[in-house]
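Friendly challenge for the regulars: who can give me the structure tokens for this chain first? No prize, just bragging rights.
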Amino acid sequence: EKLIDLQVFAETKNYLKACLLCCEDPALKGQIHYLIARCCHGMELLQAAIDNLNQALSYQPNNINYWNLQADCYLEMGDWQQAVTVLNKSVRSSPRDAELIYRLGSIFLFYGEYAEALNCFSGCCQLKPFNAEYWEMKAEMLVKLQQIGDAVLCFKKAIKYGGQYHLYARMAYCYALLGELRKAKKLLQKVLNKEPDNYDALNNLAGIYHKLGNNEQAYKHLKKALILNSNDPLLYNNLGLVCHKLGRSRKAIEYYKEALKLDQSDTIVLFNLASCLAEKGLWEEAKVNLEKLVALEKHNTEAWVLLGNIYENLSRPKKAVDCFNHSLGLA
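First reply, four minutes later:
Bragging rights claimed.
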């Protein structure tokens, strides 16, 4: 084992194979096959590792270490379903091993199987009800599955049992989704009192102020966020939206253009920019941006309607009719 830890794989593997020839004890044979599998895994001989682990499991079928290494091999081979099958067998042999169940949940999460991940993290919470990380992961799965009220309860438990401060921001996000904006605002202000440079909290609180109709405060928080990160197209888009609401269309146009410098194919920004340009009577520039948009999204009804209106203002009625037909799906 010390040689394996030192990554002396080939020589150790040969030595262990020789040991197998003179070994009669079934339990010891299982351990030797496991150690050979570790060598094979270290040498990236994944199928050979799996074969040796199958041999090891035939001697010691309830050994968690054997199942876990076999799951590692299948994951590295890209066969996550088989890794899950293997870990399920391991869980059946050790049903109260919370870390093992957590690992299974993490695999489901990585591959987008949120309901299965939720089952795993819920099991972890039952086994170790004072573990903040388990409650946090359960809450995140509930958010993914749009069970927002239950997610709030889980975030509260995660905070109660010592979870990190970012959980207040996540809980605020849930309250915002539930329409409880003032609760969300209070939590985000709490986060920013402790962490004034929390980028996500600044953006989320700006969003809350925007929804509450206080766009001056929204703009103030977005500007603080911009000092922390000037490479986020979503931030520039939100600055544009807020400036537009404040009647500062030319400033909004500047922010939208900054967003497009970072992501030229962002259809939301293209539409918002075109709308602002059209309001200012800058028809040609608005047309150019909308044509880019409909080339990316051929079935964007709002874009076709706005483009039709722009062609009408440019005294090109036939092009306008074509656009309106596109918006109705008649083209």
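The radius of gyration is 29 Å. The mean pLDDT is 93. Your move, everyone else.
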